[in-house]
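Worked problem 6 (solution included).
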Amino acid sequence: MSAARTSRANTTSHRPDTQIAERIEGGLDDEGGINDDARLQQQLALIKRLDCDLLGLQEATWGARSPRTAEAVAAELGMDWKFLGPSNFYGCDLAAFVRVGDHLTVDDVTYLTGPPFVHGLANVTLRIKGHPRPVQFLVGHSAPSAPTARLAEAEMITVHRKQDAIYVADCNAISLTDDLEVSGIDPVKADKLDTRPAQALAAAGLLDVGALLGDRTPTVGHHREDSLAFRCDRIHTNLPAAWITGYGVETGGDHLSDHRPVWAEITFGETGGPTS
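Solution. The predicted structure is:
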């Protein structure tokens, strides 16, 4: 079993190196009515090794423990800024964490709920030293079983096409580059084969980082033979492709979650972005 690792590039003050990871489960197990956080601690140890500046989580299903669990996660990962957004759907909250420093600060955060978002959308406005425009860090979780809703969510994300944006999400549908063997899969998973959301993001100039770097490692469906193995969890951005200096899918924690964490390394440079 292999594990992807980030490699931090040497940077100057005008080329800050920003790394992003996306997706771990809530990690709390019910043992005799008592929430056991042992699995969460193992997940955090895995994420900590990725050394991320930005982190977006879906299914932060921490219930009544959410505020203090978010505090504990931020402290363990050395993230100075955090946000927890309640989900509209079965407590699958969204969380965002930022390691604030000389090169990276948070200006604002907004959280959208209600149609078209089944869960919600967190939009964190970042300032990165040497970069002339704010960067929108978007954390989403697409509809689990409603293709029409997923398409509407993706279309709404495209309103950010003229901003500098990084979108991390459990997309709940295949990418444009998934090469799948669909025989024998659970028929309930058939709606995941809809590529329209991915097409909408691509048409708006939001690059699929995994596809760009040629990594087709599935992030779900790797644990059961009747599951659909595909890149459900993805990172999209309209920042220049040359700035994307790394990408990986962490496979070392397959026993901890049915979703694999995804990370990307973005090294900001001086060439123009989408609004220049």
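Discussion: The chain has five helices and 14 strands.
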